[in-house]
Amino acid sequence: MPVARPAASVALEGFELRVLQIPLVAPFTTSFGTETVREVIIARALTADGDGWGEIVTGAAPLYSSEYTQGAWDVALRWLVPALLDRHSLAPETVAETLRPFVGHRMAKAGLELAVLDAALRAEGRPLGEYLGAVRDRVPSGVSVGIQRDRETLVEVVRAYLDEGYVRIKLKIKPGRDIAETAAVRDAFGGIPLQVDANSAYTLADLDSLAELDRFDLLLIEQPLQEDDIVDHATLARHLRTPVCLDESIVSHKAAADALALGAASVINIKAGRVGGYLEAIAIHDLCRDAGIPVWCGGMLETGIGRAANAALAALPGFTLTGDVSASNRFYTRDIVTEPAVLEDGHVRVPTGHGIGVEIDPIALEDFTVARETVRR
Ligand code: OSB
Ligand code: MG
After folding, report:
1. What is the value of pTM for the model shown?
2. Residue 245 CB less than 6 A away from ligand 1
C-alpha cells in the first residue's frame, strides 16, 4: 500500500464517460505529429455518496503509445467499467487489482481509478495531495515547447514562456530538428534550466548526433529511443554525458525497476496515465527515492482534472526536478474546471479542496462533449 492512510470505500452505482474535443491555443508538434485539438475522455464515477472525476489521457491516435481514444473508450465500456460495477463496495486502492486481469490499457485504468479516488476523497473531505503524501503547497512549473516552423520562431516562443515565469524549458526534438534548435535556445537565453524530449524518434545509429547534445549542458534527454529499447537506452546512456530520462518506456513499477537495474535511465518522468494510475505512480516515486533516482511529473495536455491531480503528485518529496505541470492557458483558452491552474511566480498551486480539489464547469464540459455513455449498475 503506497499511501499512509487508505481512503474509505465507495458504493459505486455507475460511470458516465464522455469524449471531449477541446481546441488548443496553438498547434502542438512533437516527433510523432501535430495536434490542434485535444481529444480526451472524462470519466465520472457515480457513487451513493456523490460523484468523482477522472481523465483518460489517451490521444486520438496511437502515436505516443499503443493506447488511443476509441480503444480506451471500447475497453472501458466493454470490460473495465463492468468489472468495477461488479464490486458492491469498492476501495480506491483495490481498483488496480480489480482491473489487473485485463492486460495493458493503463491510461483507461488510470482515469477510472482517479474518478473512484476523487469520489471517495470528496466523500471523506480529504484533499488528494494530502492522501498522496504531498509535502509542498505549490510546485515549480516547466513547459514543454513543441517543434516550431524555424529557429527564430522557437526562440520567440521560448522567450514568451520565460517572460511568463516558467522556470524550466523542455524542447521537443526529432532527427534533423535537434542540434541547431538547442544551440539557438542556449545562445539566446544562456544558462536557463533546459532539457529535450525526442519521443522515441532516434535509434542507436544516431549515437553521434545525440552525443552532440552533450555540449549544451542539458538537464536530461527524454526518451531518445523506442518504448521497448531498454538495453539500447542503457548502451546509449554509457556514451552520453547528458542524463538519459525515460518516459514512454516506464509503463509500470516493474518496468521502472528493470530500467534502473539495467542502467537505462538516471532520471524518470512519472505520468500517472502511462503507468495505470496515481497509486502506481507513487510506487514508482518510492522506488526511485530509495534508489536515489530523481523523478519529475510529466504531462499529457491534461484538462483541469488531470492537471490538478498532477500538481498534487508533483508535490511529493521525490519530485526533485521541475515537471511539465504548466498553467492551463499553456494549452487552453477555456478549461472544463472553474478554477484552471495559473502560473504564480513560476509555480502552480496544489489544490486544497476535497478530492482533486477543483470543480467542474458543467457548461464547458457540455460544450466540448462529442460522445457520451452512461453505465449504471
Ligand atoms: O512526451 O511528455 C511527452 C504531450 C503529449 C504526449 C507526450 C508528451 C507530451 C508533452 C506535453 O511533452 C506535456 C504537457 O502536458 O505539458
Ligand atoms: Mg516525453
Report:
1. 0.98
2. no
